Amino acid sequence: xxxxxxxxxxxxxxxxxxxxxxxxxxxxxxxxxxxxxxxxxxxxxxxxxxxxxxxxxxxxxxxxxxxxxxxxxxxxxxxxxxxxxxxxxxxxxxxxxxxxxxxxxxxxxxxxxxxxxxxxxxxxxxxxxxxxxxxxxxxxxxxxxxxxxxxxxxxxxxxxxxxxxxxxxxxxxxxxxxxxxxxxxxxxxxxxxxxxxxxxxxxxxxxxxxxxxxxxxxxxxxxxxxxxxxxxxxxxxxxxxxxxxxxxxxxxxxxxxxxxxxxxxxxxxxxxxxxxxxxxxxxxxxxxxxxxxxxxxxxxxxxxxxxxxxxxxxxxxxxxxxxxxxxxxxxxxxxxxxxxxxxxxxxxxxxxxxxxxxxxxxxxxxxxxxxxxxxxxxxxxxxxxxxxxxxxxxxxxxxxxxxxxxxxxxxxxxxxxxxxxxxxxxxxxxxxxxxxxxxxxxxxxxxxxxxxxxxxxxxxxxxxxxxxxxxxxxxxxxxxx
Amino acid sequence: xxxxxxxxxxxxxxxxxxxxxxxxxxxxxxxxxxxxxxxxxxxxxxxxxxxxxxxxxxxxxxxxxxxxxxxxxxxxxxxxxxxxxxxxxxxxxxxxxxxxxxxxxxxxxxxxxxxxxxxxxxxxxxxxxxxxxxxxxxxxxxxxxxxxxxxxxxxxxxxxxxxxxxxxxxxxxxxxxxxxxxxxxxxxxxxxxxxxxxxxxxxxxxxxxxxxxxxxxxxxxxxxxxxxxxxxxxxxxxxxxxxxxxxxxxxxxxxxxxxxxxxxxxxxxxxxxxxxxxxxxxxxxxxxxxxxxxxxxxxxxxxxxxxxxxxxxxxxxxxxxxxxxxxxxxxxxxxxxxxxxxxxxxxxxxxxxxxxxxxxxxxxxxxxxxxxxxxxxxxxxxxxxxxxxxxxxxxxxxxxxxxxxxxxxxxxxxxxxxxxxxxxxxxxxxxxxxxxxxxxxxxxxxxxxxxxxxxxxxxxxxxxxxxxxxxxxxxxxxxxx
Lengths: 481, 481
Prior knowledge:
- The structure is a homodimer.
- By secondary structure, chain A is of the alpha+beta class.
- Chain A has 23 helices and six strands.
- Chain A folds into three domains: about 1-30, no CATH class; about 40-300 and about 465-475, 2-methylcitrate dehydratase PrpD, CATH 1.10.4100; about 305-420, CATH 3.30.1330.120.
- The first copy, chain A, has a four-stranded mixed beta sheet with strand order 4-3-5-6.
- The termini of chain A are far apart.
- The model of chain A is unreliable at about 10-30 (pLDDT under 50).
- The interface between A and B is large, with 110 and 109 residues.
- Chains A, B: This is 2-methylcitrate dehydratase.
- Chains A, B: Belongs to the PrpD family.
- Chains A, B: It comes from Methylobacterium platani JCM 14648.
- Chains A, B: Pfam families: MmgE_PrpD_C (PF19305), MmgE_PrpD_N (PF03972).
């Protein structure tokens, strides 16, 4: 067997060699740019120092909406088979009953609770979205710190600050490597999310700057999730595991478990290893003045955003005209080509397939006035009234219609013609869901899982998160009795 | 904000689109080879079906040696600061005391125990090496299954079979992506190791073929470790976390937590995401006839392999001639250029720096007749007898000397000249450590941590692993009272 450089010195040796402890490996090619400096440390310093008082009001507000939306989707997913399986698998290994699960009676140690709430909140793919990176920010971050908060009480203001800083961390790191990192196959919510969880948990633990550097380094060592897993339970696994892994990183760093100082930006660090693009300015520039957390969005409809303009238009015309299915003779849609490319299924057989059928989405929106998880259930796609109407929906690819637009025309049996143009669907950055919309979504998700009075109480506490004396109150209020 | 394909459909949508549930994304370029089929499933089927009875005797023997060496290094690292920190950090979150730690009194749930034993076994970088990939195979695999075995007793034969299959799994997957995967920055022991842990744990759990496919898929979702972490505690973190993550994957899969069916080979699966090279034949060809596990090697000396030929020669001449330091006038070494490039430090100040000093390594070997962890301690590099002799060691780069060779010449005060040529150092595939060598290494590592009688007992049980009625006996015998 011929020995090569790697086997000869051993991994530790190559590392020390690269660090200059001994004669180094041949240096990088001459055309390579100078390595970026102190990216991890700059981010760590910001997270450690940032105060709730410094957060602009708009960022606090969006952080609160992010939190409320996450609580709703976590309750909504809590009795899905995915969570039943995970709970039963992990029960025998859990530590002390430190933290609860939304919508369920079981208690787990905080790392398992972070995992399970993180899984639950992503099951319907109905959580928040940072559209620039398609990161779902709340799952990894909120799941980690709410569990932690149950064990080590903190004020709601500190909690909200940590939530925003965690979202900031993951979305900025995501920006630095998107789209190459996502295109090659990573589920960016899990890979960037673990940094967000570590940063937010480390913030609440009061880590020093050096400890935060190590926490981010241990987070970098645990990227979670591949896109190939989409369509299986493994997809929801990813934000949950990112939450638990980030928490694990912070817990070790708090006791001075060391990592390297430049794990994000070093030559053989995270960004170079997981992406062909690295724009470190996205991480270090404008910290404390520009907030990615302010760009978070929430889905009004439980399906891909490509169908949202059409559903929005359908619901508007239905409600304004009090339409009933029997009144409708035909529905014409002018759409961008992507709509048919991605959601062109005409005969969906399951709720999940319904999420990829623009004709189903419009039909069920006209019948039920909504596009929630219930409208993408097996029940809904088999409803004879819906399937009948589905056959009357005719989407037509039309030049000049942008992806975020739609033109919807309904011809009624009495000859009237109703039209609606959508420029930006509800839920976009330009046309965000109102607080009342978020409440309706929350209630819709929680109904049938928690009693109505409890739903109202959890929602009120979530809205009030920034003012609570003890943030853990939300967790305790959201469990099943 | 302009929407793009990703934000429009949402991640789940793109996945289903890619799976053909709806009109697919633009297909891969015409020059791309046809995607490999059933790699994950072929491997899963093999692991599920393989029996201890089918293992060649040589493979059983190497598996036993792998296990014994791992127990020794895990005991050896058990009181290092790295482990003290990790134990104190994780204690508050541990589940029931299901499994012990080598060399320590604490008990943890099996996932935390797997992590901690995995960390411990890598601290000195003195564990086993699969030279083709520089994977350290035992850490992730043995740590996972020995913990599991304490909770769910299995025979030693089943244990040894699972250990071999886990090593086979990680080394074959490593072969498929090495060297590109390692060169870009991954710590391959952690990234491939998690598959080994999942496969071995899943084997002992009796997973079905489909469950094993899912376990491998959940493993693929959790690659652990970047080379930038080398030189910090984070390096030992990696095999430990790989052990725990693989166990976590198997535990979920056992309850039918699903993943995708082709997570290793799919277009956006593991191999394409983490490497520019994919040779799937390394995974699927010759299963059950060619064993990577038979190629495992063990380090006789606690440093990079580049120094091993010189240390080997020095110890041979010392012992054969009963040399004492005062007899030695000078030591000349003919070496390959890599030796000085990687281990050219002439005045090491710490034990760790001593691992990168060929002059120290030869001097201490001549004084103490060994190259163990004790010879690379702060004490050893500061020993005046050693430092004095160090100044008399003269390595010279010599054309024609290959990296695995050395020519060592000692000139004595009485005028005699002793020479030794090494073709393959002890510990190489061609010149493996004998069982007696492994025993001496084991004892050297365990001395001062466990009482002598206990060391002998643990070692005897480890040698006997394939015949034990209950494999967990080794774990129970190796803890500190």
